Amino acid sequence: MEGKLPEEQVKSVLAPWRFSLQSSGFENRIVTALELYELFPLDIVVTGGTKEANAKLAVALCGIEDGQSSEEEEEEETSDEEEDVSEKEEDEDEERDDNSIVSTDAEEDEKRKDAQSRVSIPAKFPREHKTRVRITEYAYGSKEEGYDSDPMLSHPHVPNVRIWTAEGGSSSIQNNYDVLVVLTTELHQEDHMRITIEQCEKDKPLYLVKAEQEWDLVFEKPTGPCMTCAWERMRARNLELQKKHKLTLESGGNANGEQTSSGLPQVAKLLGLKEIAEVLMKALPDLRKKAFSQFLVDITRELRVPKVSSGLTTPLVCSALKSRKISQEDLDRISVVFHPRDLTDQPSKLLSILTALEHFRLDVGLLGETGCGSSSLFNSLLGLQNDEEGAASVGVTETTLEPVACPYPECYNTLLWDLPGLGRVGDLKNQSVGSDLHQSPVLPSNLPACDVYILVSPMRLGLGYIRLLQHLLSQGKSCFLVLSKADLIEEKSVGEVRRWYDEVLGKLGLKQSVFLVSALDPEAMDFPKLKETLNNALPCLKRATLASYVAKLLEQDVFWKRADPCKLM
Q: Which of 185-189, 246-250, 428-432 has the highest mean pLDDT?
């Protein structure tokens, strides 16, 4: 387990779990949380300005510039002009055809028949024009089906990030968002002290963005039975907050500068349009992890509240379903899996695991008998030729004497290992007479332990490989079976080989696919399918491996130190 996570990340994972209880199914809950995180959308609300100003800010958050929309408009106008020219040419051709027809009875009959069999388009028929997309229409181009709310824009560069635009000021925004972006000016920056305090209490981030013009803002309207009294109360409250804020600033405030000594937070820094796009782009991964951790804690807490009547849902659950932040299927899954509170009693636990996922290393090892062609397959998976620089050594003798590891380019923080072949002559002095792969499935102690294994066998799988496969699966390892040197198999026999292996593995209860590859022609046969299957499976395997790693880590360093409550009674 050493080296899978940096030492700092190990400490960060262990820190929130002190004095925590553990229930059965803990590892499954971690896997479920990581799977839900992959689909969790981060909701950003843009407000404070007019419809056009909010839309422009939403487009800026996505990294879309004004020039892109203007170029699209020019291309559409050019295509419209070309269509107009083509229509005019068609009309002129029809007129010339009409003038060239001789007005005789026979020819008029033929003309009448031709006109009936020919489909003509009236010149005055209204032509459908393409919808031109302008910068203010980007944020209003899509709405969630079945969700009656403000317009939504999906981030084009970052998946699972939704940007909503809402009119009416920050006071009209509901709580079903994760990040709030308010359009304002330097003159009105201090007026947002109230929303700053509310955001601090909710532990949600707030960004203030400088508007280009004063008329881009929409000021909040006072509400109440008496508009004058409501306005006076709002004005007095703002003046009181500003006075406290200025007095605290004059007294020096606290050391960290995030919150004053009187408990009053400072107003967020005012950012420009380009600056907010850069700042938010860097902060999006951390914001999404933090938002998901808090969301799962809140929604599991609400699901534990007993319902008075059937069909009654809590506000958070109702809004999450309505905005499609979560599906009903996932909601039912949460209510069953997260019934114990060992993982969702505080957001810091989930946040530490999500952060560890980014730094966790997955090890994939290629293993087989010496001379099976695993080194050639290793080079092919890395996109290298056998004679290129950085490629693993290949030859007719035993060339891989020590494990070789290289970063796998298709999956972040994944190492691909070329392990020494089993049954090497050099290992004869360390083994008893007659001991080989077919007798002992136990791996040599000098091989690094990998999380995923690709078992390579030349032309056919023997009994030793089946035993090794069963041994690795019993340890919770994931395996892929590869038949190398498959170019030596006759083409007419390939189908028979596949059917035979499916039958043999099926009788043993092993649901494993066998990939036929050739080092001489890597792109032929099953190599593209093997690479695609491996790349699609690695993210899921990484989540499962991390869950097992965290569970074992906590058992060793946290859970085992607590006394059994039954023995104390």
A: 185-189
CA distance 540 to 40: 16
Measured between alpha carbons, how far is 187 from 352 in angstroms, rounded to an integer?
A: 40
Q: In angstroms, rounded to a whole number, what is the distance separating the alpha carbons of residues 180 and 204?
A: 8
d(CA 339, CA 295): 15
What is this structure's pTM? 0.74
Q: Give the integer Cα–Cα distance in Å for 548 and 477.
A: 11
- Report the length, in residues, of the chain: 569
Let me know the angle formed at the C-alpha of 48 by 42 and 53, rounded to the nearest 5 degrees: 90
Q: What average pLDDT does the segment 278-289 reach?
A: 93
pLDDT digits (tens, 9 = 90+) for 16-37: 887 677 778 899 999 999 999 9
Sign, CA dihedral 471-473-478-482, equals: positive
Amino acid 554 reads L
Q: Distance between CA atoms of 120 and 206, rounded to whole angstroms?
A: 60
pLDDT in tens, 464-490: 888 888 899 998 899 999 998 888 888
Cα separation, 100 vs 29, whole angstroms? 82
Strand, coil or helix: what is 254? coil
Of 70, 25, 41, 7, nearest to 161 by C-alpha is 41
CA distances from 425 to 239, 373, 404, 458 (A): 86, 17, 19, 18
